Each structure stands twice: as structure tokens, then as C-alpha cells.
Amino acid sequence: MASKKVLGLTAATAALVLGLTACGSEGGDGGDGGDGGGEFTYGILYPQTGNLAFLGPPQISAAEYAIQEINDAGGILGTDVPKIVPGDEAGDNAQANQAANNLVADGVNAVIGAAASGMTQATYDTITGAEVVQCSGSNTAAELSDIEDGGYYFRTAPSDLLSAVVMARTMIEDGNQNIGIVARADDYGGGYARALQEELESLGAQVVVNETYDPLATTFDSVVTSVNGAEPDAVALIAFEEGAQVIAQMLESGVEGEQVYVTDGLNDPNLGETVSADNPDSVMGITGIAPSADNPEFMEGLTNFNPDLEVFQFAPQVYDCVTSIALAAEAAGSVNPSEYVAELPNISRPEGTECGSFSECRDLLADGEEINYQGVSGNIDFDDNGDPTAATFEIFHYGEDGHEILRYEEHSLQD
Q1: CB neighbours of 203 closer than 8 A, spacing ≥ 6?
Q2: Strand 178-184 to strand 206-213: parallel, antiparallel, or no bridges (unpaired)?
Q3: Tell me, what CATH number does 134's domain have?
Q4: Same domain, 110 and 91
Q5: pLDDT, block means (10 residues), the chain with 415 residues
Q6: Do residues 372 and 352 lie in contact, with contact meaning Cβ atoms separated by under 8 Å?
Q7: Peptide bond into 114 cis (omega under 30)
Q8: How confident is the model at residue 37, as a pLDDT?
Q9: Calpha distance 56→409 (Å, rounded)
Q10: How far, in Å, CA of 99 to CA of 87, rounded?
């Protein structure tokens, strides 16, 4: 693989050779090196607590659903996948990294997650530095394309560079020309805001205010005052759950719901109750952009698997992480991450035979064919940085009937 993958591999190998020797068969090879046999164990870093905890249930449910389908098809290399090993990222760097250390010590063959981009920034060196494959279905920060991961980090969620394009075009198509941007002051918020401003200006719009805020703050008077002073046609809010308080203060200051556009961190059917328990309808008119999947069959299957699931954000992408890794192990004939990692980019190449499930793709591999896995979230087609090159987005809206999806749109970096 190119650029930072190759350079990172050399550095990681040199720095960690002693540590990996000490770990022996518990360093992520399932206890069986490259012989192919043995169990393939997944670990998962997801938010059981913290300000993204609402994204936890779809993450773990999608991973478990994928594992069930893999096992129904005979398992990975003929062996059932055991129960997934969980770790809580908790929205805290230290706790997330401790959870990552625990997963590596447990000898998992791959880690799904982290859910939040910031938590991956805090943990990828621990995971990929131990030559364990890490795949997130919900990391979107643009900076993750360039990390020194030794070639072991992948994601099935699109970069914010693409999400920002979709956000900008949606706002312009809705007739807005003077735009305000409010973002949390971290890598995710800053990167998204920069990409959004660049795309808006390329489309002829004017960004009249671009403010960041401390996500741990208890009040957001400063950014709300800046927004009101600039009098934008519309405001893009790049936030996680704390954004509900920002919305509440903007609405109280006179901003209309129809003027507010939000990102996937606020794609929550219960947003109205979070913004105002006394007046949940106050969010009516708000529109949002989120990576998604136009796949009713998958959604029905996941709902049957977990009937209590209410939030589905990033579930298809997490499912695709689990399945892609399983197919790479099948292609390599090994559960060892250092051996199957090279096959991850190859299981979704355009020149391969299209297939849409683990069992179908596994059988094609067994027949000696190259495959092009069509994920439940869409075509994966990893690039040299481990990023997907295309994605499906949902345009969601809070209307009279609550949270609803207006439409799905497919976009690629080549558009």
C-alpha cells in the first residue's frame, strides 16, 4: 500500500519488535500464527457511556449481527467466531486507551471502532502499533487519512471531506447564500468546518461567521451572540450530543429551526426531548446530513436481530467492517492480522466479481475468484489510506412527524 501505510509499517515493526516477541501468540494472531486455523476473535471499542452513548447500541448490535451471519455460514476459515470482546471508549482519551490496551492484551484478531474520531486518535497507536487491524464504521475526521498506522487502520465511514461537500450542496440547494458555521473545537469539528467553508465558497456562498466552542462548556453564549450578529441565512452546527444545548440557546435567541443544519452526531430521533423536554417540537425544521445506507433489507434484518434498537446511525458501516475483515482472513487463509491485512484492500476491488454477503463472497474466494464485496452500506473500495472512496448519505429532517429521512444521495470523491 502507498504513502503513510508503507512508511508506518516500517516504523511500527522496528519500534515494536521486542514487545511483539514478548506477546507471542497473544499478539493478535489468535494463537495460531499463519496456519489458518483457530478462532478469530473481534474486539470492539464503542461508547457505552459518554456523550455519544446513544450510538453504542447500533454499533454493538451491527457487529453482533454480522458475526451471527458469519457463523450461520460456517464461521471464519471453518471455525465459529466467539462472542465479541467489548471495550468502553467513554468519550475519554485515557479510558479509551486503557480499553484498547485490554483488547490487545486479550489477543483479539481485529478491533472494531473506536466510534468517535477523537477516541481513535487516542487509541490507534496502541492497536495498530501491536499489528492488530482496526476498522471503524463511524470515524469521519479527515486527519485520520494521514495517520502513521502501519497499514492496519481502515474505515467504512466516509471522511468529513466528503460529508462537508454534501452539507454545503444541501444548504445551497435550499436557497441559502450567507452561511454561519459553528463547530466543536477539536479535530473533528475543526476539520469539518474548514472543508465546509471551502466547499461553500467554491459554490459562491459567503461564510459570514465561523466559530468554534469548547464542547465541555456549560454555556454557549459567545457563539450564539456571534451567529446573531452575523445574521446568516442558515447555520451549520458540527457537534455531538452537547450540540443539543447549542441548539436550545440558538432557538431561544431567535434563530429558526429551518435555519439550522446539523451533522451525524445529532442524528437522534430523541433530539427534540434532549433540546427541550417541555417543548420537543422546538426542533421542527432542522435538517441534517449523515452517512447512511439505502438498504431496507439490511435494516429489516438488523431490526429483527434487535427489536429494541431505536438508533441506526453507522450500523451498516460497522457491519461492513466486520464482514470485510472476515473476508480478508478467508482470502489470506489466516487469522493473523499481519497476514490478512494485505487482503483488506483486495476484497472490494472493481475488477473482482461482485458479491453481497459473507457466504457468497467466501464461496467465490474458495473457487479462486477475485471479489468485489458490495457492502450493506454500499461499495467499499478502500483506497491507499484505508478510506472508502464513495458513500451514501441520508438527508434527515425534524418535521411534524418527528425524525424522518427526506432522501438518500450517493456521492464519491470523484464527483
Answers
A1: 168, 169, 172
A2: parallel
A3: 3.40.50.2300
A4: yes
A5: 38 36 38 60 94 89 98 98 97 96 98 94 98 96 94 96 95 98 93 96 98 96 96 97 96 97 93 95 97 95 96 95 98 98 95 97 98 93 91 95 93 72
A6: yes
A7: yes
A8: 62
A9: 25
A10: 5
The whole domain housing 166 covers: 161-292+392-412
44's enclosing H/E stretch is: strand 42-46
Asked, for residue 229, whether it belongs to a domain, the answer is yes
Mapped onto helix, strand or coil, the DSSP state of residue 184 is strand
Q: Let me know if residue 300 belongs to a domain.
A: no
Whether residues 17 and 40 fall in one domain? yes
Could you give the number of structural domains in the chain? 2
Cell numbers given for 178: 450567507
Instruction: Please state, in angstroms and rounded to a whole number, the distance separating the CA atoms of residues 29 and 31.
Output: 5
Spatial separation of the C-alpha atoms in residues 45 and 122, rounded to whole Å: 12
- Write the DSSP string, 307-376: TT----TTHHHHHHHHHHHHHHHHHHT---HHHHGGGGGGGB-TTSEEE-SHHHHHHHHHTT--EEEEET
Count of CB atoms situated within 10 Å of the CB of 126: 20
Q: How far apart are CA 348 and CA 326, in angstroms?
A: 13
Q: 176 and 281: one domain?
A: yes
Whole-model pTM above 0.90?
Answer: no
From CA 285, how far away is CA 287, in angstroms rounded?
6
